[in-house]
Amino acid sequence: MSNHSTAQEIQAEIQAIRNQYKERLAADKSKLLSFLDELNVNSAHQAAHEIHLILHSISGSAGTFGFSQISSEARRIDRSLKQSVNQPNTQNSNSLTNFINDELTHFCHLLDKVNSDDELKIEQLENTEKTSQRIITSRPEGEREVWLIEENEKLADQFSRQLVNFNFKINTMNLKQALDLASKLGWPNATIIDIDCDDFKDPPSTNNVFSYLKEATEGLIMLSENDSFEQRIKAAKARATSFLKKPVDLSELISHLEAILNEERVSPPRVMLVDDDKELCALLKVELESEGMQVNILNNIKSILSELVEFKPELLMLDMEMPSYSGIDIALLVRQHAQFESLPIVYLSAEQDIDKQTEALLLDADDFLVKPISHKRLVSSIRSRVQRARTLEQLISKDGLTGLLKHSTIKEHATREFERSRREGSPVSIIMLDIDHFKRVNDTHGHATGDDVIASLAALLRNRFRKTDILGRYGGEEFMIILPNTGASQAFDIMEGIRVAFSKMEFTSNNQTFFCTLSAGCVCSDDFAQNTDASDLIEEADKALYISKNGGRNRVSRKQ
Amino acid sequence: MSDLKRILLVDDEPDIRAIAKLALEKVGGFTSMICSSGYEAIDQVYGFKPDLILLDVMMPVMDGPQTLKKLQEKELINNVPVVFFTAKVLNSEVEELKKMGAADVIAKPFDPMTLPDQLKSIWRRTNEQS
Lengths: 560, 130
What we know:
The complex is a heterodimer. By secondary structure, chain A is of the alpha/beta class. Chain A folds into four domains: 7-132, no CATH class; 145-264, Rossmann fold; 270-397, Response regulator (Rossmann fold), CATH 3.40.50.2300; 407-558, Alpha-Beta Plaits. Chain A contains 20 helices and 17 strands. Chain B has five helices and five strands. The longest helix of chain B is centred in the C-terminal third of the chain and has 15 residues, at 115-129. Chain B starts with 5 loop residues before the first strand and ends with a helix.
């Protein structure tokens, strides 16, 4: 829903249509009253038919606009009316007249209450609107502005030069300038502060600044030479996201910046709701969607597996008490399938009995939330469950050092993307790349430094390629990149840019500065016959990589 | 299986048309064509090419089942699932409508917030069966 309109806009429109509908109910009421006025024994049968049409229509519509009681009463009267009309007795017309008289008078009273009943309903709507207002206004895509508060010019210059390679826009300034600028523009998404600066030497003013930063900024990284409890607690009190010890490990700084800046661009949590209370479901859906989540309500419990496969929820929220099956039954059924073994399952229930809650948790669920539940608790509980599940997934499929896909996973992706490209007739390019003379880096500077080089290259790749490109660590210092919908020359150009950027990156080890280069080979599915498969492409990309190596390294080659 | 995108809705009540249009377009993100009678639907269906048709049962002059019959006779809806909207929802009526070739029946009053999901799951089911 979030792709189309905000929940707030939709609620406002619903309210407008509802107001129209209330006018229609008022018109229906006038019609019914006019039947009552003219009702007599002779006209009763004819009137009954007209009344039936009106009641039938109201029974089918009022609930949609929030007047459920009116719907159900209209239905009840309509049904009884039908029975009265069909009664084969001589007093038929008389009893029908009385019936219509009694029931319509009652129903018109009920319609009068629409306005007072409305107050209740509006209150509910306003609550929903309040939740809608929490919709986060997202920051502009691709904006990676970072403020660096650093008095040491040499350090500031070094950071700026290095970080620019990773597509960060660095603005260096001192604390006073930052405070001035922030009062006009607001703070950026990420700020790095060196707290060894003179500005932070005076304790009382520092405390003030820190408590201000806590309120004003998000995505704060603090740097200090002094890795003490005192410095770290200061950073924690300012709600800094990270604390890094100087001299700063560049790849660590980059991964912290990425974590901060990518946070809002990660995909929204996907939640599937299973509850027989449709109104509650609709309300939860609006609430969760207003927090930027994707929500799917399961309509037919019997199709739960196919819906799970299709929607791929990251969390399943189950009502404990449903008419035919309990939440536990459903949870166990889901867990019978290996692919959903690690899907977080949360029960939502009115069950207050702690023993029953515990029993439910022992049977394969992750959390037990008791209705009614506050919006904040519900959202934070879902977010933390989904986040943990994602972290776990990342640990399983991603390489620890680089955060890129592991060998086996990237190969699976290559096969999938290649098949897709064949199916859709769009090109896919594959690049293999390798750091030149990497053994020498390890031998000269040690394995820890070697790891830094690999992590830095991985960060560079992550920043230069598109979100849709797929990056993997293929071997020790070898990487594979899959570029969907990308032709050979485009892939070559992107890789050339990265090769040049990498050759300019400065690494330090024991106060020694050094540079590295890389070689790469790229191929595109367009250059292959129909009967090839993904492994042919990978093999040819590897051959192209060796052409680069044999041609003197620090270059990119294409399939010959 | 392709996604459910285009929905043709037929209902004689203006308020229901307004809220259903909102539910289909804003909540569900579908493209919709809203018709006020069976006749209008028969006129529009060929040009609009819906993926699914949502038909009110009780309408004046030509009701939902009659409309479906006409659409079938004119061969305007090969394989397009037709879903009925009804306030009656008696099992016998549902069976009757399904016998006529309806993919499913949705009870009125419907909830505008969940209608799109209901349609999506009907769509999925019909596709699985075919």
